[in-house]
Write a structure and sequence with these properties.
A hairpin with a 2-residue loop joins strand 5 (109-117) and strand 6. The protein folds into two domains: 3-135, no CATH class; 138-242, Phosphorylase Kinase, domain 1. It has helices at residues 53-63, 67-87, 101-105, 130-136, 196-211, 250-257, 261-278, and strands at residues 3-4, 15-22, 26-33, 36-43, 109-117, 120-125, 140-141, 152-155, 159-162, 178-181, 188-192, 223-229, 232-242. Strands 7, 8, 9, 10, 11, 12 and 13 form a seven-stranded mixed beta sheet that branches. It has a six-stranded mixed beta sheet with strand order 1-2-3-4-5-6, with helices on one face. The chain is of the alpha+beta class.
Length: 279
């Protein structure tokens, strides 16, 4: 997940939510900003005396089912946290317009908890936790991937992140999607490891698609390589797929252009044939 703060305040650094867990009393949230990954633990019982506590609890209750409440919860937390980031004098790297996947995912994780002392908000630094790193950074062991030796392996430092939404996109906070290798203009689609079992199933399915050359018959995702951490070659960060250029999803295209019934039936048959071939 990556939820972008679309309209930052003046002089406010860009930020994106990359991980979220919440219940009725607390929220744990990972925020990427200024080329750092911040992890915040916010518990209601640590906020006694804070003027925003009631609003926090109300938004927390609604955020489970209401996207607007979830966004408002992000904004409320960021409003407290952004001035604190400023005091750390953290600046993006000079080469923030040309980052590798290793640059992006190799950043330090800075964990804090938010507490209220009287009426003032404070952020207390938490100790480093290896379990937190495993939770927040995409990774799986190379040894867990059957048939890994049958595909190319790419060092994450050899990649270059490309803007996805527009040329002005902030690649230091947006979740990487499009990447190139070295100075080559050719673009690939990057998919980070998320759920471990799902990643293993997807990798093997993609590998078999390529092995049986089904990607040559249909416009299907095609596996290019596994991406390894530069600092840990036995740890997989994600996969690269050959990029399929597109401008929208099918439902968006159909809504805009209202294709004919004949064209809809043609697409239906193509999807049916492709699904049969995949099975």
């Amino acid at each position: 997940m990556s939820i972008k703060h679309e309209e930052p305040l003046e002089d406010c650094p860009a930020w994106a939510v990359t991980c979220l867990s919440l219940d009725e009393e607390s929220v744990c949230i990972a925020i990427r900003s200024c080329h750092k990954l911040f992890y915040l633990e916010v518990f209601a019982n640590n906020l006694e005396g804070w003027s925003g506590r009631e609003q926090f609890l109300l938004l927390l209750q609604d955020a489970v089912d209401d996207n607007d409440a979830e966004e408002s919860l992000y904004d409320l937390i960021w409003e407290q946290f952004q001035p604190f980031i400023d005091t750390l004098a953290i600046q993006p790297p000079q080469n923030s317009t040309s980052l590798s996947l290793q640059d992006f995912y190799g950043v330090s994780i800075l964990p804090f908890k938010l507490v209220c002392n009287g009426t003032d908000i404070h952020f207390i630094r938490l100790p480093e936790d290896s379990a937190l790193i495993t939770k927040l950074l995409p990774q799986t062991k190379l040894s867990d991937i059957v048939n890994a030796a049958k595909v190319l392996h790419i060092d994450a430092s050899q990649t270059r992140i490309r803007p996805y939404f527009s040329e002005g996109s902030d690649i230091s906070s947006d979740t990487p999607v499009k990447v190139s290798l070295g100075d080559s203009p050719k673009v690939y689609y990057f998919k980070a490891v998320q759920d471990h079992p799902s990643f293993l199933r997807e990798f093997e399915a993609l590998r078999q698609l390529a092995e049986h050359r089904l990607n040559e018959k249909s416009n299907l995702p095609t596996l290019h390589s596994l991406v390894t951490y530069s600092t840990s070659p036995d740890t997989i960060m994600g996969i690269l797929l050959y990029y399929i250029d597109h401008d929208s999803s099918m439902i968006e295209w159909m809504t805009r252009r209202d294709p004919s019934q004949q064209l809809r039936e043609k697409w239906y048959q193509q999807i049916k044939d492709t699904t049969r071939a995949l099975h």
